[in-house]
């Protein structure tokens, strides 16, 4: 029965398929680039592989595409095994398409010819060829640019041509390797919208490699956070933000402060009163790492009560809609907070924390 929900045909005609990555390992000589990584990706899911440079994201993507073999484990698309130490389905037989950081468009071909190139190679001609190219251009909203040459397009438009070229062959899975890395900040934001729209229109299974957490959070249904070849956490952007498993994940995702508290245990949410009591304990008692997001911090100028702490304002940055404050607690830990107005640098403020999330120490 598993095959029934691992392969589905969606409204655009693209056949989305689920990907199963089971304890996949890749070694380059002595170096383990990907270490027993397992993920179950559902049909039509938008998944980001996120992690710092060198953590093995691109290697994992290249193993999915078939450009690298695997040393251990298994990759399956629906019920079909694509890779294991005994099996290696070549890239062109995997029903996947990959979009690279450098769009790699042919400079001497028009947009339409670039997009149609993969199906022309397969011998498609005539009306069906024209229709497929038109459909692929429509998916990235570039129908009006069919006859332009790539040099006459913006970076974002070129990246959309590359996307259309990968869609024309109707892949089950689209693999994207840092597709926005070469674009400026403004264009990246625009392209994030294009990618989300594109995913909604096609319903294709997308695996997206990035080292940019804001990009991953904005785009993906689920994020695999990787560190040194290993999967550290696999969850929705909301879970990663609110319930990071380790202190390292918390430092990588969103803004926040990590404090030591004498309360709770990993995976527990501390409510206000317990958190404040735990923070007021002696240093030797405070052994549990807790994450406090800035939106869970209240700042006041009145004197602290039993459930407040006093903090010194060390830095104030204007962020338009609010001020970002860097505060020093009596424990000498720093706390990042938001506030509507700007307290004086050097002044004392009363701080009250609504909640905190307890994490595992890093391995
Ligand atoms: N062909 C190769 N031969 C030897 N080592 C390699 C090879 N490809 C990758 N590596 C190593 O494997 C590790 C993972 O590389 P990978 O490119 O997958 O990382 P990444 O997370 O994608 O990094 P980045 O964000 O910088 O692209 C790195 O230490 C890298 O040097």
TrEMBL record:
Keywords: ATP-binding, Nucleotide-binding, Transport. It holds the Pfam family ABC_tran. The keyword ATP-binding applies. Residues 19-253 form the ABC transporter domain. GO terms for molecular function: ATP binding. It comes from the Bacteria. The keyword ATP-binding applies. Transmembrane segments: none annotated. PANTHER family: MALTODEXTRIN IMPORT ATP-BINDING PROTEIN MSMX (PTHR43875), OSMOPROTECTIVE COMPOUNDS UPTAKE ATP-BINDING PROTEIN GGTA (PTHR43875:SF1). This is ABC transporter ATP-binding protein.
């Amino acid at each position: 029965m598993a095959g029934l929900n691992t392969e589905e045909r969606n409204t655009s005609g693209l056949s989305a398929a689920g990907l199963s990555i089971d304890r996949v390992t890749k070694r380059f000589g002595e170096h383990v680039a990907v270490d027993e990584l397992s993920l179950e990706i559902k049909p039509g899911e938008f998944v980001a592989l996120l992690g710092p440079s060198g953590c093995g994201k691109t290697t994992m993507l290249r193993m999915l595409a078939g450009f690298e073999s695997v040393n251990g484990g298994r990759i399956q698309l629906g019920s079909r095994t694509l890779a294991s130490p005994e099996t290696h389905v070549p890239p062109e037989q995997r029903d996947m398409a990959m979009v690279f950081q450098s769009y790699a468009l042919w400079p001497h071909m028009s947009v339409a010819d670039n997009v149609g190139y993969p199906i022309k190679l397969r011998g498609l001609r005539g009306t069906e060829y024209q229709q497929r190219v038109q459909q692929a251009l429509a998916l990235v909203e570039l129908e009006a640019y069919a006859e332009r040459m790539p040099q006459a397009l913006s970076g974002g438009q070129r990246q959309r041509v590359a996307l259309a070229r990968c869609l024309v062959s109707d892949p089950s899975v689209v693999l994207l390797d840092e597709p926005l890395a070469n674009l400026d900040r403004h264009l990246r934001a625009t392209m994030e919208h294009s990618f989300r729209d594109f995913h909604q229109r096609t319903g294709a299974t997308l695996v997206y490699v990035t080292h940019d957490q804001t990009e991953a959070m904005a785009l993906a249904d689920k994020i695999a956070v990787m560190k040194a070849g290993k999967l550290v956490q696999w969850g929705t952007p909301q879970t990663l933000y609110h319930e990071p498993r380790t202190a390292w994940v918390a430092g990588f995702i969103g803004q926040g402060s990590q404090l030591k508290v004498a309360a709770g245990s990993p995976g527990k949410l501390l409510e206000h009163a317990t958190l404040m009591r735990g923070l007021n304990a002696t240093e030797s008692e405070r052994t549990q790492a807790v994450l406090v997001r800035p939106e869970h911090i209240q700042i006041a100028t009145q004197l602290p009560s039993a459930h407040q702490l006093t903090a010194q304002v060390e830095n104030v940055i204007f962020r338009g809609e609010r001020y970002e404050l860097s505060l020093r607690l009596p424990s000498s830990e720093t706390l990042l907070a938001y506030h509507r107005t700007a307290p004086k640098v050097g002044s004392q403020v009363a701080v009250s924390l609504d909640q905190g999330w307890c994490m595992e120490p890093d391995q």
